[in-house]
Design a protein that fits this description.
Distance between the termini: 23 Å
Order of helices and strands: EEEHHEEHHEHHHEHEHE
Oligomer: single chain
Shape: elongated
Strand content: 15-25%
Radius of gyration: 25 Å
Length: 267
């Protein structure tokens, strides 16, 4: 059935040097490149019988261990490339049936891809996750929030029977104020950090089951930062973390990562 081409990333041809010795998607072959003018694709070859669309669909849907291993391989490979070149990372399982079809895609999208390279060159993607101890913050809100305090005073004037139901409402009010406070604090940090970066986007938060953290994730954001400004950005994150940790907050910056969030090219 011939070969398929698995695409990891695209690199400016002018940056491409000797490709590192990296194993391909099948665990046997090696990465190699295909050039289309100013753009070079980093790929590996796959046996079409073993990695055709139907086989991959079945693996993704029914073999979780295989999926995890291959997704990790893709991530680690793109990460390794991003440490050497300016890369446009491709999503997991981007496959072409022929060299001609891949070259055609690169040629047709050359202008857009060069614009992305211009945006990414000299810059890095970093991630920030903000965690919060909900119980600690809830206790602080319950004691210091003027809305909560006023409601508590009103309830104290009621009969015991009415107090029971009103206290239930108060608990819900505390929960509402908790979420609003978490958003206010996180947005304040995010807006301050955006002044130090080229771009900053907010992502969906992860559940505690995914993170494995004791504290709940309240914020998840990504930033495109000039390499010259990364140290200042990290210092600012550390400063916020030190300032806020006694009140139950924790800030974690990680990177640099392949710029998935700032290179929206899809084949």
């Amino acid at each position: 059935m011939g070969e398929l081409l698995y695409l990891y990333a695209c690199v400016p041809s002018k940056e491409m040097t000797t490709l590192p010795d990296l194993t391909g998607f099948d665990g046997e072959g090696k990465l190699h490149t295909i050039q289309a003018g100013a753009i070079t694709a980093v790929i590996c070859s796959l046996n079409a019988e073993d990695y055709n669309e139907d086989v991959l669909k079945d693996k993704v849907e029914n073999d979780m261990q295989w999926l995890q291993e291959k997704a990790f391989h893709h991530h680690e490979t793109v990460l390794a490339l991003s440490k050497l070149y300016t890369v446009i990372p491709l999503k997991f399982s981007t496959i072409y049936k022929s060299e001609d079809s891949l070259k055609q895609t690169l040629t047709e999208n050359g202008s857009k891809m060069n614009d992305i390279f211009d945006l990414l060159t000299g810059n890095e993607e970093w991630n920030l996750k903000i965690y919060c101890d909900d119980q600690m913050l809830k206790e602080q809100i319950s004691k210091s929030n003027p809305v909560i305090e006023q409601k508590r005073q009103e309830i104290s004037q009621l009969s015991k029977g009415k107090q029971f139901f009103e206290l239930k409402k108060l608990d819900k009010l505390v929960e509402t104020e908790l979420e609003e406070e978490k958003n206010r604090v996180s947005e304040r940090v995010h807006e301050a950090l955006k002044k130090l970066v080229l771009k900053g986007n907010v992502k969906r938060t992860w559940s505690s089951e995914v993170t494995g953290a004791d504290k709940k994730m309240t914020w998840n954001s990504v930033y495109l930062i000039s390499k010259e400004d990364v140290e200042r950005f990290l210092e600012e994150v550390q400063s916020y973390d030190q300032e806020m940790k006694e009140t139950g907050w924790q800030l974690e910056a990680s990177g640099p990562w392949p710029a998935y969030h700032f290179s929206s090219f899809q084949t």
